[in-house]
Every structure is written in C-alpha cells, then in structure tokens.
Design a protein that fits this description.
Length: 556
Amino acid sequence: MADTIQVLCDNLGGKIEVPMGTTLLQLVEKIPPKDHPYLAAMVNNRIKELHYKLYTPVTVRFIDITSFEGIRVYQRTSWFLLQKAVQDLFPGHRLHIRHSMGDSGFYCEIDGMNLITEEQADLIRNRMKEISLRNYPITKQRMPTAQVREIYQHYGFDDKIALLDTRPRLYSQLYTLDDTVGYFYGSLAPSTGYIDLFDIKPFYNGFYMALPLRNAPAQLNKEVHQDRMFDIFRQYQSWVGLMGVPTVGAVNTRVLEGVSSGMIMLAEAFHERKFAEVADAIREANRTRGTRMVLISGPSSSGKTTSAKRLALQLGVLGMKPELISLDDYFVDRDKTPLDENGERDYEALEAIDLDLFNEHLQRLSRGESVDIPRYDFITGRRTWHNNPLTLKKDSILIIEGIHGLNPRLTPSIPDHLKFKIYVSCFTSVALDNLSRISTTDNRLLRRLTRDYKQRGADALSTLSRWASVRRGEERHIFPYQENADVMINSSLFYEISVLRPYAEKILRQVPDTVPEFDEAQRMLKFLDNFIPIPADTIPPTSILREFIGGSGFTY
C-alpha cells in the first residue's frame, strides 16, 4: 500500500509494515517489553528521539540504558530534570554541572549557594521525583537562532548565547520541559517519566547527583571515593575560570579576538609547572624512602607517553637520571592477545602484556644487568628488538608508563615504598555551557582517532569499532586503581579540541553510513562544529597535544 512503509526492526528480528508517519514511540509499543524502557533508537545508524516520524523504509534498533548511547540519553535528560528542579526551588540561582564522578554521577553547584545542606538536597531530590512522576513531555522545536537567542537572554543564559554568537547558524533547536528551556547537544528521552532512578547528596560546596550504572541499571553508585580526582577537577576548573575560558563560547571568543597564542603559552606553562611539582615530589620520595621506580598509568590517549618524557626532563633538571620504558612494548604478539567475552582481542587486559618477560627484565635491571628492551610494532602487531641495551646506574630512576601502571599485579616483586605512582588523564575542564559538560571520554576519543590515523595506520572506522571494548577494558582494568596514585596529572588543554577539530573531521567523514559506527562519527562531527579551529603551527613541540597530531620534539 502506498501509505505504508516497511521497517526492518532489529529488536523484533524482522520486518514490520507500519503507516507512513508512524513515530518511533508508536513503533516501540509493538515490541515486547524488556527490563529497561527504550530511550531512543538508531535509525539507519543514526540516533533519533522517539518522537521521530518514519516516512521511508528504514532499519531501526531501539536502545536502552545498557548501551553507551542510551546511558548518554538518560544522563542528558536527567540534567534537564535537575535544571527544572533547581529553577523551581531556587529562582534566580544558576545551576552548574561541573564534572563527572564515578561511573555515572556528576558533581554540581548552584551559584550563590556555597554549601548545600541535607535539607536542600532532599528538596532537590523530591522535586525531581515529582517532575518524573508528572511525566512532563519534552519537546524540541527548530526556530530561527535570533529567536532562540532572545529566549536565552530572557533566562540569562550568557554561556549559551556566547556559543550561539561565535558559531552562528540561521536556525537552532530548543528543548522545552514545562516552563523550562534548554539545549543539551544530543538526544533526550520523550518525557520526564523515563528518568526514575537518581539520588542527590551534599558534597563539597554543592552536591553529587548519582545516576544508574550502564552495566547495572538498577544500581546507584552513591558512595564515590575519588578525592584526588575531585581535587584535580576543582583545581583546573578554578584555573580556567580565572583565565576567563570556562566554556567553549568563551574560548571561541578569545580565538576570534586573535589572542589564542597567548592562551596556548599560558596553558603550556601551567602544565610545565605541574610536571616540575611532581618531579620535586619524586625526588623527595627518592631521598626519604629510596624510590627508584615511577609508574605512570591512565586510560587510552591520556598522554602518558609525553607525560613520562616531560617528567623525565624535569627530573633531569634536579640531577636525577631517568630511564623510560613503555608497557606497550611488552604487548604479546597480536595473534596471542587474549579475547574478551565477545570474542574480540582485549588489548586492555593485563594479560595482553607479557608479564613474565617484563618482570624478568625488571629483576635483571635491579641487579645491574643490561637488558635489551623490546619495541612493539603497532602496524604489524609484533614485537621487535632494536639492540639498544638498557642498564640502570646507582642514580638512575626508572619511569614505566602504560595503562596498567597502578595495577599491583604488574610489579608484585617490587616493594610498594620503592614505587611512585602517577595517574594521568585528560580531565576536560571546559564545558559547552553551564549544563553541558564535555566528556573526558570524548576528548580522549578525538585524540585517539587522530593518533591512530597518523601513527598506527588505523582509519576512523577501526578506532570507533574498538572504542566500546576499550572503554569496557578501562572500567575493568584501569579506573579501579586510579585512587592508588600518589599524584594525579591532568593532561587536558582547554584549547585542544579547537586544534584537533580539522584532523578529526577529515577522519570522521570517511565513516560510511552502512555501519553502526556512523552515528558516533556524526555525533562527533556535530560536536566539533561548536569549536573555532586553532592552527596547529601555534602548538609548541613539547606539548602533550603533539603526541597525537605529530610534530613533537620528542621521539616516540
């Protein structure tokens, strides 16, 4: 019939004929209910909200909170509920979603309220529950940007206005929840009733919003012990605030003013100061407890390698003799890499490292013997040898960098007091606006896409197809040990996504629409469009960013 279309629905395992103009919300009613409600759908490998109408034959896959795409929808929608709750309870006060905490939680603050009490936290939680139970519809309108700007101005959303003004478009989208408006740079659930599990607890100057875990959706991680990580986030957010660049709109404004080179020099100087402080701490540990090994850990594309090299320079300034080893060079040959539960090679597993050889080399080095350190070739997936023996002298200090640096199983024979442990990640401190933070995961993905393409011969499809496995591996093998660190280093640079944009865009556009990774590529392209590019020739050769875009003064 001319007024019907065929839909290939993965959740139903076959085709279904529906009237033209059927919404995804109507289609999902034909699917047997599962443990968790569907929050959105992948239509021809692009995420769509459930109000989306179907007019042509399509392939549809509905997603819930257990997918990486679904948990993002749940989180963004919960931020909208929180915004309305704060607006209702504390009119005239501005909400800030500062940064992530734990596997699925966020630290938030309210302007003008320096300490959130238990009673105020209860009020916020209870108001959010009321909003959820009332099941307000969440609508999206496309309207002239000038009109959206006027609405933002009425509400005092200067952070959103700055982004609109620096990335002008004729039309923009606006979300509405009852009397509350906003925009969250990604899909939302169709109504507030989908957000039914959360908690609010006072924390530091604000509060912690706990949300369900992707891999355990019935659970809330209410007790988050991340004191060191929280201190890093707080320190950097204070710094970007003092610099006047807390949001992307503010960064774009500075770029348009032609002062980006000054921003870059200040950011790099801030990094250098941090490496000098860590080097001082290592020298003190060497003096007081005989520390001779520095272990640097962190998730993929956190800048571990350049951090190790810059730290080595600072240790050299102090008269120490650092020697560097990368755990990546101890990867087993690719065909011997262990497999995960999906049958894919699990490069994040500790067993992907040749632990026996690595520890044998450590023992021989500690005895003063010369050791030929291997070199792993990421193109061939095999270990090579470069006949450049390493010998530790009495005043040498060994720096070992790799994702498993803080795992006690890596170096079981080395007493703890002889090790100085460092955790490195890019804790992104700049936000899109006050309510839409930039995920550190997205920042690292952009770095990895660029590096893999330029240095490891991997296209965007290859990197994106492995990213979910990488993240699962980090959740298992890296994040549980991060608070074991003696110090944490934030490798993020508030200007870096502006530099990465031209590189990543070129790579992401190569992903075809025939693969599931197409949606992630399009999401990242849309995200990058918010940034005004900064030319790479303004980046110094010692910058951590050079590890990913090339042109580094260091040898990798």
